[in-house]
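User:
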Amino acid sequence: MTTMALNNLWTYLQGLSLAKKDREWLAAKLLEPTAKEEEIAQQQSFVKESLYRALDEVKRAKMGESQLMTEEEFFKKLDEDGIV
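Assistant: Predicted structure:
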């Protein structure tokens, strides 16, 4: 939106007689996309961390440093580390 459009919107909103509850609802709606973006970022971070852990585990198993964990062991470890 252009500055002029935002100013017009602000003027319009100021002209409304909104109760506190209505203003809070409007504020929440304006912040909602940001909250969804943060949730998506958290999900992406979780997937990235899980993949790094899995790849590291495979690499160590190929080098003979450890045996591969079972799926249950892997998810239990993620749960213990607070990732899941």
